[in-house]
Amino acid sequence: MGIVLLYLGLVTTTLYGGTVPAYQSAVGTELGDRTLAEATARVEQAVPPDARAVSTTVRVSLPATIDGAGYSVRTDGDALVLDHPDPEIGGRTQPLLPDRVDTLEGEWQSGSPTVVAVSGTRGSVTVTLEAER
Question: Which InterPro entries match (predicted)?
Fold first, then answer.
């Protein structure tokens, strides 16, 4: 009986001391990468074909948390950046936008409904990340 308890104790310690946390960290990193890729795709898809004037809003679904913590997706120049409390989770990507898009701005906070708002004229379009109103 003592050997069985010792074995169970070692297996439990191994799983919860190393294997499970490492797996959770890998899952968090993967979810962060997927979230940033999905956000980038939605921003790219929100810009309609060339038109005289544009005013559109596209809803974007994001996970409420990544690895149990809140996060944000913000713009930095012409890039999207995922910020997370865990330094292993996050990233930066540059959406492929038409030349007529001259401004990419705004920020999304996890846990709240988010949209991409696109507005402007043929030669000057602004893409904004914002909370849904």
Answer: DUF7266 (IPR055690)
What is the residue type of 97?
L
**φ, ψ for residue 84 (rounded to 5)?**
-140, 150
User: How many Cβ atoms from other residues are within 10 Å of residue 51's Cβ?
Assistant: 13
Where exactly are the structural domains of the chain?
2-131
Cα separation, 41 vs 85, in Å, equals 24
Relative to beta strand 72-76, strand 101-109 is: antiparallel
Structure tokens at 68: 């149990």
Q: Give the C-alpha separation, 96 to 80, whole Å.
A: 11
Residue 110, C-beta contacts closer than 8 angstroms, at least 6 positions apart: 62, 63, 64, 65, 66, 70, 71, 72
Write out pLDDT tens, residues 101-132: 999 999 999 999 999 999 999 889 999 999 99
Beta-carbon count within 10 A of 86 CB = 15
pLDDT of residue 133: 84
